[in-house]
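Q: For a teaching session next week I want to show students how multiple molecules come together into a single three-dimensional assembly. I've collected the sequence lines for a complex. Could you give me the predicted C-alpha coordinates for the whole thing so I can convert them for display?
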Amino acid sequence: MDGVHDMGGMDGFGKVEVEQNEPPFHHPWEGRVLAMQRAMGYAGAWHIDHSRFAQEKLPPLSYLGSSYYQRWMLAMESNVTERGFATPDELKAGHASTPGKALPRKLTLDVVGAGMCRSSFYRQQQGPQKFKPGDRVRTTNIHPATHTRLPRYARDKVGVVEFCHGCHMFPDSVATDRGDSPQWLYTVVFDGHELWGPDADPTLKISIDAFEPYLEGA
Amino acid sequence: MAGHDHDHDHHHDHDHGSELSETQLRVRALETVLTEKGYIDPTALDAIVEAYETKIGPRNGAVVVARAWTDPTFKKALLADATKAVASMGHMSRVGDHLVAVENTPNRHNMIVCTLCSCYPWEVLGLPPVWYKSAPYRSRAVKDPRGVLNDFGVTLPKDTEVRVWDSTAETRFIVLPMRPAGTEGWSEEKLADLVTRDSMIGTGMPLKPSEVK
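A: Of course. Below is the structure for the complete assembly, covering every listed component.
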Protein backbone atom coordinates (compact mmCIF):
# COMPACT_ATOMS: atom_id res chain seq x y z
CA MET A 1 0.00 0.00 0.00
CA ASP A 2 1.15 3.55 -0.68
CA GLY A 3 1.59 4.45 2.97
CA VAL A 4 3.91 6.64 5.02
CA HIS A 5 5.94 3.56 5.91
CA ASP A 6 7.32 3.57 2.36
CA MET A 7 9.85 6.29 3.10
CA GLY A 8 12.63 5.77 0.60
CA GLY A 9 13.46 9.11 -1.03
CA MET A 10 11.14 11.31 1.02
CA ASP A 11 12.50 14.69 2.08
CA GLY A 12 12.05 16.70 5.22
CA PHE A 13 12.73 14.21 8.00
CA GLY A 14 15.97 15.93 8.91
CA LYS A 15 19.33 14.69 10.10
CA VAL A 16 20.04 11.21 11.40
CA GLU A 17 20.40 11.57 15.16
CA VAL A 18 22.66 9.01 16.78
CA GLU A 19 22.31 8.17 20.46
CA GLN A 20 25.66 7.28 21.98
CA ASN A 21 25.78 4.09 24.12
CA GLU A 22 22.19 3.30 23.28
CA PRO A 23 20.70 0.62 25.57
CA PRO A 24 19.00 -2.45 24.00
CA PHE A 25 15.66 -1.19 25.33
CA HIS A 26 14.70 2.27 26.56
CA HIS A 27 11.81 0.96 28.69
CA PRO A 28 11.18 -2.53 30.05
CA TRP A 29 7.86 -2.71 28.16
CA GLU A 30 9.76 -2.55 24.86
CA GLY A 31 11.46 -5.83 25.63
CA ARG A 32 8.11 -7.39 26.54
CA VAL A 33 6.63 -6.28 23.20
CA LEU A 34 9.55 -7.71 21.26
CA ALA A 35 9.43 -10.98 23.18
CA MET A 36 5.66 -11.32 22.78
CA GLN A 37 6.06 -10.78 19.06
CA ARG A 38 8.67 -13.56 18.91
CA ALA A 39 6.47 -15.87 20.99
CA MET A 40 3.33 -15.30 18.92
CA GLY A 41 5.32 -15.77 15.72
CA TYR A 42 6.76 -19.04 17.01
CA ALA A 43 3.29 -20.16 18.04
CA GLY A 44 2.11 -19.68 14.48
CA ALA A 45 -0.42 -16.99 15.36
CA TRP A 46 0.57 -14.81 12.45
CA HIS A 47 3.41 -14.19 10.04
CA ILE A 48 5.96 -11.38 10.02
CA ASP A 49 4.25 -9.89 6.95
CA HIS A 50 0.99 -9.68 8.91
CA SER A 51 2.87 -7.62 11.48
CA ARG A 52 4.32 -5.37 8.82
CA PHE A 53 0.96 -4.93 7.11
CA ALA A 54 -0.71 -4.10 10.42
CA GLN A 55 1.84 -1.35 11.00
CA GLU A 56 1.38 -0.03 7.48
CA LYS A 57 -2.37 0.24 8.10
CA LEU A 58 -1.91 2.50 11.11
CA PRO A 59 -3.18 6.01 10.43
CA PRO A 60 -0.24 8.08 9.12
CA LEU A 61 -0.13 10.39 12.13
CA SER A 62 -0.13 7.42 14.44
CA TYR A 63 2.62 5.69 12.45
CA LEU A 64 4.84 8.77 12.44
CA GLY A 65 4.00 9.82 15.98
CA SER A 66 4.66 6.47 17.64
CA SER A 67 7.98 5.06 18.71
CA TYR A 68 9.19 1.88 17.06
CA TYR A 69 8.00 -0.49 19.77
CA GLN A 70 4.75 1.45 20.18
CA ARG A 71 4.07 0.65 16.53
CA TRP A 72 4.80 -2.99 17.25
CA MET A 73 2.36 -2.91 20.14
CA LEU A 74 -0.37 -1.29 18.05
CA ALA A 75 0.17 -3.81 15.26
CA MET A 76 0.07 -6.66 17.75
CA GLU A 77 -3.22 -5.41 19.18
CA SER A 78 -4.70 -5.39 15.67
CA ASN A 79 -3.47 -8.87 14.87
CA VAL A 80 -4.66 -10.22 18.22
CA THR A 81 -8.16 -8.83 17.84
CA GLU A 82 -8.64 -9.03 14.05
CA ARG A 83 -7.40 -12.61 13.90
CA GLY A 84 -9.61 -13.62 16.81
CA PHE A 85 -7.01 -14.37 19.49
CA ALA A 86 -8.69 -12.06 21.99
CA THR A 87 -11.44 -9.47 21.91
CA PRO A 88 -10.98 -5.71 22.23
CA ASP A 89 -12.98 -5.96 25.49
CA GLU A 90 -10.50 -8.44 26.90
CA LEU A 91 -7.56 -6.18 26.04
CA LYS A 92 -9.40 -3.26 27.59
CA ALA A 93 -10.14 -5.22 30.75
CA GLY A 94 -6.61 -6.66 30.87
CA HIS A 95 -7.91 -10.16 31.46
CA ALA A 96 -9.13 -13.06 29.35
CA SER A 97 -12.80 -13.91 29.69
CA THR A 98 -12.70 -17.05 27.54
CA PRO A 99 -10.02 -19.71 26.85
CA GLY A 100 -7.66 -19.19 23.91
CA LYS A 101 -7.79 -20.71 20.45
CA ALA A 102 -5.61 -23.69 19.65
CA LEU A 103 -2.24 -22.77 18.14
CA PRO A 104 0.30 -25.12 16.49
CA ARG A 105 2.85 -24.73 19.30
CA LYS A 106 3.95 -22.61 22.22
CA LEU A 107 7.26 -20.92 22.99
CA THR A 108 8.27 -22.29 26.36
CA LEU A 109 11.53 -21.83 28.23
CA ASP A 110 13.05 -25.06 26.92
CA VAL A 111 12.69 -24.02 23.28
CA VAL A 112 13.59 -20.35 23.54
CA GLY A 113 16.77 -20.86 21.48
CA ALA A 114 14.81 -22.32 18.58
CA GLY A 115 12.16 -19.62 18.95
CA MET A 116 14.72 -16.89 18.51
CA CYS A 117 16.18 -18.26 15.32
CA ARG A 118 14.71 -16.87 12.13
CA SER A 119 12.87 -19.44 10.15
CA SER A 120 13.71 -20.12 6.53
CA PHE A 121 11.71 -18.32 3.88
CA TYR A 122 12.76 -20.68 1.10
CA ARG A 123 9.89 -22.51 -0.52
CA GLN A 124 9.60 -25.16 -3.21
CA GLN A 125 9.87 -23.55 -6.63
CA GLN A 126 6.66 -23.35 -8.62
CA GLY A 127 8.04 -22.74 -12.08
CA PRO A 128 11.20 -21.94 -14.01
CA GLN A 129 13.32 -18.94 -13.06
CA LYS A 130 12.55 -16.20 -15.57
CA PHE A 131 15.63 -14.00 -15.14
CA LYS A 132 19.33 -14.55 -14.67
CA PRO A 133 22.17 -12.32 -13.47
CA GLY A 134 22.96 -9.66 -16.07
CA ASP A 135 19.39 -9.42 -17.40
CA ARG A 136 17.88 -5.97 -17.74
CA VAL A 137 14.49 -5.75 -16.09
CA ARG A 138 11.80 -3.16 -15.55
CA THR A 139 9.93 -3.12 -12.28
CA THR A 140 6.19 -3.09 -12.54
CA ASN A 141 4.10 -0.02 -11.92
CA ILE A 142 1.87 -1.42 -9.21
CA HIS A 143 -0.03 0.35 -6.45
CA PRO A 144 -1.83 -2.36 -4.50
CA ALA A 145 -3.94 -1.20 -1.57
CA THR A 146 -2.46 -4.12 0.38
CA HIS A 147 1.03 -5.12 1.53
CA THR A 148 3.85 -5.15 -1.01
CA ARG A 149 7.63 -5.11 -0.75
CA LEU A 150 8.21 -3.18 -3.95
CA PRO A 151 8.96 0.34 -2.69
CA ARG A 152 7.40 3.29 -4.50
CA TYR A 153 10.75 4.81 -5.49
CA ALA A 154 11.68 1.66 -7.39
CA ARG A 155 8.50 1.14 -9.42
CA ASP A 156 8.55 1.35 -13.22
CA LYS A 157 12.37 1.60 -13.23
CA VAL A 158 14.97 -0.24 -15.26
CA GLY A 159 17.69 -2.14 -13.45
CA VAL A 160 19.94 -5.15 -13.80
CA VAL A 161 19.53 -8.52 -12.10
CA GLU A 162 22.60 -9.17 -10.02
CA PHE A 163 21.75 -12.32 -8.11
CA CYS A 164 18.99 -14.86 -7.69
CA HIS A 165 18.25 -15.86 -4.09
CA GLY A 166 16.10 -18.86 -4.89
CA CYS A 167 12.38 -19.23 -4.38
CA HIS A 168 10.81 -17.52 -1.36
CA MET A 169 7.37 -17.13 0.12
CA PHE A 170 5.70 -14.04 -1.36
CA PRO A 171 4.85 -11.32 1.20
CA ASP A 172 2.12 -9.74 -0.96
CA SER A 173 0.26 -13.03 -0.81
CA VAL A 174 1.09 -14.05 2.76
CA ALA A 175 -0.02 -10.72 4.27
CA THR A 176 -3.46 -11.10 2.73
CA ASP A 177 -3.90 -14.75 3.74
CA ARG A 178 -3.61 -16.08 0.20
CA GLY A 179 -0.87 -18.58 1.02
CA ASP A 180 2.90 -18.72 0.48
CA SER A 181 2.67 -18.42 -3.31
CA PRO A 182 6.46 -18.99 -3.68
CA GLN A 183 8.28 -16.68 -6.10
CA TRP A 184 11.82 -16.31 -7.36
CA LEU A 185 13.68 -13.56 -5.58
CA TYR A 186 16.37 -11.39 -7.19
CA THR A 187 18.70 -8.60 -6.20
CA VAL A 188 18.12 -5.89 -8.81
CA VAL A 189 20.49 -2.94 -8.98
CA PHE A 190 19.62 0.52 -10.30
CA ASP A 191 21.75 3.53 -11.21
CA GLY A 192 21.10 6.55 -9.04
CA HIS A 193 20.08 8.49 -12.17
CA GLU A 194 17.37 5.98 -13.04
CA LEU A 195 15.72 6.46 -9.66
CA TRP A 196 16.44 10.09 -8.86
CA GLY A 197 16.99 11.80 -12.19
CA PRO A 198 19.89 13.75 -13.68
CA ASP A 199 20.88 15.46 -10.44
CA ALA A 200 21.50 12.19 -8.62
CA ASP A 201 24.92 11.36 -7.21
CA PRO A 202 26.72 9.77 -10.20
CA THR A 203 28.50 7.28 -7.93
CA LEU A 204 25.26 5.95 -6.45
CA LYS A 205 23.85 2.49 -7.04
CA ILE A 206 20.84 1.15 -5.17
CA SER A 207 19.56 -2.38 -5.03
CA ILE A 208 16.33 -3.90 -3.88
CA ASP A 209 15.40 -7.53 -3.49
CA ALA A 210 12.55 -8.03 -5.92
CA PHE A 211 10.17 -10.94 -6.26
CA GLU A 212 9.64 -12.13 -9.82
CA PRO A 213 6.07 -10.75 -10.12
CA TYR A 214 7.59 -7.28 -9.61
CA LEU A 215 9.70 -7.65 -12.75
CA GLU A 216 9.36 -7.78 -16.50
CA GLY A 217 12.07 -8.01 -19.17
CA ALA A 218 13.48 -4.69 -20.44
CA MET B 1 18.89 -1.42 34.21
CA ALA B 2 16.34 -3.13 36.37
CA GLY B 3 16.35 -6.90 36.35
CA HIS B 4 13.37 -8.99 35.46
CA ASP B 5 12.58 -10.24 38.90
CA HIS B 6 8.94 -9.47 38.51
CA ASP B 7 6.18 -11.58 39.85
CA HIS B 8 3.93 -12.83 37.11
CA ASP B 9 0.92 -13.16 39.34
CA HIS B 10 0.97 -9.44 39.88
CA HIS B 11 1.69 -6.65 37.52
CA HIS B 12 5.30 -5.65 37.55
CA ASP B 13 6.35 -2.21 38.44
CA HIS B 14 9.51 -1.57 36.48
CA ASP B 15 9.52 2.16 36.09
CA HIS B 16 9.95 4.75 38.75
CA GLY B 17 6.94 6.28 40.38
CA SER B 18 3.44 4.97 40.41
CA GLU B 19 2.11 6.71 37.33
CA LEU B 20 2.03 4.13 34.56
CA SER B 21 1.98 5.33 30.99
CA GLU B 22 -0.84 4.33 28.70
CA THR B 23 1.63 2.29 26.66
CA GLN B 24 2.85 0.38 29.72
CA LEU B 25 -0.71 -0.42 30.69
CA ARG B 26 -1.60 -1.61 27.22
CA VAL B 27 1.49 -3.80 26.97
CA ARG B 28 0.68 -5.31 30.36
CA ALA B 29 -2.87 -5.95 29.30
CA LEU B 30 -1.63 -7.71 26.17
CA GLU B 31 0.82 -9.86 28.10
CA THR B 32 -1.74 -10.80 30.74
CA VAL B 33 -4.45 -11.64 28.23
CA LEU B 34 -2.13 -13.64 25.94
CA THR B 35 -0.75 -15.51 28.96
CA GLU B 36 -4.21 -16.27 30.38
CA LYS B 37 -5.28 -17.49 26.97
CA GLY B 38 -2.37 -19.90 27.01
CA TYR B 39 -0.57 -18.51 23.94
CA ILE B 40 2.59 -17.29 25.63
CA ASP B 41 4.78 -18.18 28.60
CA PRO B 42 6.15 -15.15 30.50
CA THR B 43 9.27 -17.03 31.61
CA ALA B 44 10.14 -17.59 27.95
CA LEU B 45 9.63 -13.85 27.36
CA ASP B 46 12.08 -13.14 30.20
CA ALA B 47 14.67 -15.35 28.52
CA ILE B 48 14.21 -13.61 25.17
CA VAL B 49 14.61 -10.16 26.70
CA GLU B 50 17.68 -11.29 28.59
CA ALA B 51 19.25 -12.75 25.46
CA TYR B 52 18.83 -9.48 23.60
CA GLU B 53 20.17 -7.51 26.53
CA THR B 54 23.22 -9.64 27.21
CA LYS B 55 24.07 -12.08 24.43
CA ILE B 56 23.07 -10.92 21.00
CA GLY B 57 25.05 -7.91 19.88
CA PRO B 58 27.49 -6.58 17.30
CA ARG B 59 30.38 -8.51 18.83
CA ASN B 60 29.01 -11.53 16.95
CA GLY B 61 29.44 -9.72 13.64
CA ALA B 62 32.80 -8.26 14.65
CA VAL B 63 34.20 -11.73 15.22
CA VAL B 64 33.00 -12.78 11.78
CA VAL B 65 34.64 -9.75 10.16
CA ALA B 66 37.91 -10.30 12.02
CA ARG B 67 37.98 -13.91 10.86
CA ALA B 68 37.43 -12.79 7.26
CA TRP B 69 40.31 -10.33 7.62
CA THR B 70 42.73 -13.03 8.70
CA ASP B 71 41.55 -16.12 6.83
CA PRO B 72 41.20 -15.78 3.03
CA THR B 73 39.43 -19.14 2.73
CA PHE B 74 36.83 -18.08 5.28
CA LYS B 75 36.41 -14.72 3.57
CA LYS B 76 35.70 -16.44 0.27
CA ALA B 77 33.17 -18.71 1.95
CA LEU B 78 31.57 -15.74 3.73
CA LEU B 79 31.08 -13.80 0.52
CA ALA B 80 29.74 -16.91 -1.22
CA ASP B 81 27.25 -17.92 1.49
CA ALA B 82 27.30 -15.95 4.73
CA THR B 83 24.71 -18.11 6.50
CA LYS B 84 26.81 -21.21 5.96
CA ALA B 85 30.12 -19.52 6.74
CA VAL B 86 28.88 -18.00 10.00
CA ALA B 87 27.31 -21.30 11.03
CA SER B 88 30.68 -22.98 10.45
CA MET B 89 32.19 -20.82 13.19
CA GLY B 90 30.18 -22.83 15.66
CA HIS B 91 30.27 -20.60 18.71
CA MET B 92 27.28 -18.56 17.61
CA SER B 93 23.66 -19.53 17.75
CA ARG B 94 22.42 -20.62 14.37
CA VAL B 95 22.05 -17.79 11.88
CA GLY B 96 18.86 -17.88 9.88
CA ASP B 97 18.95 -18.42 6.16
CA HIS B 98 19.47 -15.57 3.75
CA LEU B 99 22.42 -13.73 5.31
CA VAL B 100 24.55 -11.97 2.68
CA ALA B 101 27.95 -10.34 3.31
CA VAL B 102 28.94 -7.46 1.04
CA GLU B 103 32.54 -6.34 0.77
CA ASN B 104 33.87 -2.81 0.90
CA THR B 105 36.79 -2.19 -1.42
CA PRO B 106 38.84 0.91 -2.28
CA ASN B 107 36.37 1.45 -5.14
CA ARG B 108 33.08 0.60 -3.48
CA HIS B 109 31.41 1.44 -0.18
CA ASN B 110 28.31 -0.50 0.87
CA MET B 111 25.47 0.71 3.08
CA ILE B 112 22.48 -1.21 4.43
CA VAL B 113 18.97 0.15 4.94
CA CYS B 114 15.38 -0.98 5.15
CA THR B 115 13.22 1.79 3.72
CA LEU B 116 9.94 -0.08 4.30
CA CYS B 117 10.37 -1.18 7.92
CA SER B 118 13.43 -2.15 9.95
CA CYS B 119 14.99 -5.30 8.47
CA TYR B 120 18.42 -5.76 10.02
CA PRO B 121 20.79 -8.69 10.56
CA TRP B 122 19.84 -9.15 14.23
CA GLU B 123 21.69 -12.40 14.71
CA VAL B 124 25.05 -10.86 13.91
CA LEU B 125 24.50 -7.23 14.97
CA GLY B 126 21.92 -7.42 17.76
CA LEU B 127 18.96 -5.08 17.98
CA PRO B 128 18.96 -2.25 15.46
CA PRO B 129 19.70 1.18 16.92
CA VAL B 130 16.86 3.71 16.97
CA TRP B 131 18.42 5.79 14.21
CA TYR B 132 18.42 2.80 11.83
CA LYS B 133 14.64 2.49 12.27
CA SER B 134 14.03 6.23 12.09
CA ALA B 135 12.42 8.21 9.27
CA PRO B 136 15.53 10.35 8.58
CA TYR B 137 17.70 7.29 7.89
CA ARG B 138 15.10 5.27 6.02
CA SER B 139 14.12 8.17 3.78
CA ARG B 140 17.56 9.50 2.90
CA ALA B 141 19.83 6.46 2.74
CA VAL B 142 18.68 5.50 -0.77
CA LYS B 143 18.69 9.02 -2.20
CA ASP B 144 21.48 10.88 -0.44
CA PRO B 145 23.73 8.31 1.21
CA ARG B 146 26.71 10.66 1.20
CA GLY B 147 24.63 13.20 3.10
CA VAL B 148 23.70 10.51 5.61
CA LEU B 149 27.36 9.54 5.93
CA ASN B 150 28.12 13.19 6.70
CA ASP B 151 25.71 12.94 9.64
CA PHE B 152 27.98 10.15 10.87
CA GLY B 153 31.14 12.16 10.24
CA VAL B 154 32.18 9.96 7.32
CA THR B 155 33.40 11.41 4.03
CA LEU B 156 34.19 9.10 1.13
CA PRO B 157 36.46 9.88 -1.83
CA LYS B 158 34.45 11.57 -4.60
CA ASP B 159 34.75 8.71 -7.06
CA THR B 160 34.02 5.82 -4.70
CA GLU B 161 30.90 3.96 -5.77
CA VAL B 162 28.26 4.08 -3.05
CA ARG B 163 26.11 0.97 -3.11
CA VAL B 164 22.99 1.00 -0.99
CA TRP B 165 21.23 -2.29 -0.24
CA ASP B 166 17.55 -1.84 0.55
CA SER B 167 16.44 -4.90 2.54
CA THR B 168 13.08 -5.33 0.87
CA ALA B 169 12.83 -9.12 1.30
CA GLU B 170 14.05 -11.58 3.93
CA THR B 171 17.65 -11.32 2.78
CA ARG B 172 19.79 -9.69 5.48
CA PHE B 173 23.00 -7.88 4.73
CA ILE B 174 26.18 -7.31 6.68
CA VAL B 175 29.00 -5.10 5.40
CA LEU B 176 32.51 -6.51 5.42
CA PRO B 177 34.54 -3.35 5.97
CA MET B 178 38.14 -2.91 4.84
CA ARG B 179 40.82 -3.95 7.27
CA PRO B 180 42.53 -0.88 8.73
CA ALA B 181 46.16 -0.24 7.88
CA GLY B 182 48.75 -0.90 10.55
CA THR B 183 47.15 -4.10 11.86
CA GLU B 184 49.50 -6.62 10.27
CA GLY B 185 49.99 -9.64 12.49
CA TRP B 186 47.11 -8.78 14.83
CA SER B 187 45.09 -11.59 16.38
CA GLU B 188 41.45 -12.08 15.43
CA GLU B 189 40.39 -11.02 18.88
CA LYS B 190 42.34 -7.79 18.76
CA LEU B 191 41.06 -7.08 15.25
CA ALA B 192 37.47 -7.66 16.36
CA ASP B 193 37.87 -4.74 18.80
CA LEU B 194 38.25 -2.45 15.78
CA VAL B 195 35.00 -3.57 14.15
CA THR B 196 32.20 -1.21 15.13
CA ARG B 197 28.52 -1.88 14.63
CA ASP B 198 28.25 1.06 12.25
CA SER B 199 31.13 -0.25 10.13
CA MET B 200 29.04 -3.38 9.51
CA ILE B 201 25.99 -1.28 8.53
CA GLY B 202 28.11 0.93 6.33
CA THR B 203 27.56 4.19 8.19
CA GLY B 204 30.99 4.08 9.80
CA MET B 205 34.50 2.82 9.40
CA PRO B 206 36.38 0.38 11.63
CA LEU B 207 38.46 2.01 14.33
CA LYS B 208 42.11 2.75 13.60
CA PRO B 209 44.77 1.08 15.73
CA SER B 210 45.40 4.47 17.37
CA GLU B 211 41.74 4.63 18.47
CA VAL B 212 41.92 1.58 20.75
CA LYS B 213 44.04 0.93 23.79
